[in-house]
Amino acid sequence: MNSRLSNASIAKLPGATAIPRYDRGAVTPGIVHLGVGAFHRAHQAAYVDACLADGEADWGIVGVSLRSPDTRDALAPQDGLYTLAVRDSAGEQLEVIGSILSLLVAPEDPGAVLAALTDPRIRIVTLTITEKAYLRAADGTLDEAHPDIVHDLANPGSPRTAHGFLTEALVRRRAAGAPPFTVLCCDNLPANGATLHKLLVEFAKLRDARAGAGDQPLAGYVADQVAFPSSMVDRIVPATTDSDRARVAQELGVEDAWPVMTEPFRQWVIEDRFPAGRPAWEKFGVTMVEDVGPFEDMKLRLLNGAHSGIAYLGLLSGHATVDRAFADPAIRRFVDALWAEAIRTLPDDAGLDTTAYTAELAERFSNTALAHRTAQIANDGSQKLPQRIVASALARQEAGLLPEHLSLVVAAWIAACAARGSSLPQGHFTDPLDAALSDLFGRNLPTAEMTATVFDLAGFANGHAERQRLIEFVATHLVHVKQGGPKLALAALGIGNEPPRLAE
């Protein structure tokens, strides 16, 4: 099979495959997306594709990879087209997405990325760059000592980071008299818009201090003139395998170098603050709100928190995928108990239907067609657990409640990290703290001391009055995991052959 998915070949695809219902040649760019990976292509790009089909032809996407050329190399020969494979137990529906007009690779040509960002047609910049790419110090502020931040301050015309690109583009737009774009963060950060706003203001202050801001400091412009609405995104997107590529190619009759696998469910909640305009996303299921906070907390603590628990306990129990781990009766009961703990930390006056939400999550976690790898979810735990697990645990302790199941997730993460190279393959998943953790695990410290050191390295609960007590909960669980694996740790919580002993 030599033919490739492209503008020239889409008309020949099987009738059951959905294809773009608009003239791609008439579409102009309105959005630059930083971090054009699989999640963006299954989520934001699919929503924009629906808007383009509805006649909003000025919202095409310029995709930017901040690190690797892999996505560009896969999709450029395909004119930016790719297949979205929506899978559940009933089967698979293929849809070709056409909203990505062009793809850039920042390290190869930062000037081209800045040119795209300063194009006055661009009114929104969206981001899915993962938590670690925000380059925060342990206290949540900008890591001013990070080599890439240091580089971007010294070389504003050839940045490496999202901070450097966004800030330099805003400088150039202001100088050209073009209005600022809206910055829409789509990563799993608490109050992600406000968080990114704060980081960019900090970065701008550093630029002001270096350059001498004069009467028009950049930091004030970023703080006062640029909109940073928060958003909450949700769709499970497992990594694409070679067997996925082969199956999709067989169905299409042409090759697609990088199709994207996903589930039927999708959700996007966005604060409606777009001074320069936006697509009519609400026509296609996006929820536009005044405050995304309650929705974000529900997703982070119930979906993402459970995902992390399933991933680490699943890895330690020998389960390669989410559906297999969730089918383990003990892990299934643990997730119910985890949800019971986390739900008590959510606001009860925000109209959240946690019963329906967790029922839907249980169905999604049971989707055998996705084969969502536990190792994929396990990546970057030190960056993910603060908002997914630690925040809930601290909130419970502040309310006089116990974080018994929440704290086990942190212990399972530590144990899974330590297990790589022994019961788990070396490099089975990765974390920004891998070098420091490897050194720590080699010191054979007592469990309590080792747990406290991990908290220090990751910055978990720094300065919080309940920090030491949470460390003690985690250390107790870690002793159980070391002695008898997840089975003993779960049994200590009353989870085994009998129903779990809930904390409520």
TrEMBL record:
Keyword NAD: yes
EC number of this enzyme: 1.1.1.-
Domain of life: Bacteria
Keywords of the record: NAD, Oxidoreductase
Residue span(s) of domain Mannitol dehydrogenase N-terminal: 30-283
Domain Mannitol dehydrogenase C-terminal: 291-478
InterPro entries hit by this protein: 6-PGluconate_DH-like_C_sf, 6PGD_dom2, Mannitol_DH, Mannitol_DH/Oxidoreductase, Mannitol_DH_C, Mannitol_DH_CS, Mannitol_DH_N, NAD(P)-bd_dom_sf
Principal EC category: oxidoreductase
GO MF annotations in UniProt: oxidoreductase activity
Protein name: Mannitol dehydrogenase family protein
Taxonomic lineage of the native organism: Bacteria, Pseudomonadati, Pseudomonadota, Alphaproteobacteria, Hyphomicrobiales
